[in-house]
Amino acid sequence: MFVKTHVESEEIAYVWADDSTNPSYEPDPTYTFNPVLSVVFDKAHIDRLGTGLYDIQFTDLDTVGESKGHVQVSAYGTTPAHCKLESWTDDSARVQCRNLFGIPTDSRFNLLSVKQETERENLSYGWVDDAVASNGIISANSSTGPGGSIIWHRVATGDYDLEFTHLDDYGVDGGTVQVTAYGTDDAWCKIES
């Protein structure tokens, strides 16, 4: 996903965590966007809690939009690492990064937060929070989109299909799909097709 900093939305915030071993720092403001603040600095703060474990705090982001929304995180750089979302609130997120063997490792990463907005026609997201059930419909409190349903099917262990039934009604063609694993284990996700 590519998002420019002059986006006119109060629901989008992002940060590039570019200093993976720094115990506490303000990230580069060139690659940080917080719609609440127009000042150059203090848009976000990152704390390294331990090897591969980070807290990201967006200043005053909890004052806009609906609650929570959706967060994507991606490892950045040439280090063989995966980063995932461990938890999030209205204005913060906890990210963990692990190497290919599942061992915590320090890594740079990008994080994008999209606050919940119910009438957006060009964006839909959902959270599958049951890894063992065979199928389901993502509930309204953990998804957003322009109406319709988000249906998921568990094809096999770790293999899921999602169907966004409502996007065709709005002429949405193409675009981008992203996925982020969630939790404290060493599982990770990727798009298959």
Please write out the topology.
Layout: E1 12-17, E2 24-25, E3 44-50, E4 53-58, E5 70-76, E6 81-88, E7 92-99, E8 108-114, E9 125-126, E10 135-137, E11 143-144, E12 150-156, E13 159-164
Antiparallel strand pairs: 1-8, 2-3, 3-4, 4-7, 5-8, 6-7, 9-11, 10-12, 12-13
Count all strands and give the number. Answer: 13
Element order: H for helix, E for strand: EEEEEEEEEEEEE
**Sheet with the most strands: spatial strand order:** 2-3-4-7-6
CATH architecture designation of the largest domain: Sandwich
Indicate the mean pLDDT: 79
Residue windows where pLDDT falls under 50 for at least 5 positions: none
> What is the CA-atom radius of gyration, in angstroms?
17 Å
Shape: globular
Strand content: 35-45%
Count every helix, treating DSSP H or I runs of 4 or more residues as helices: 0
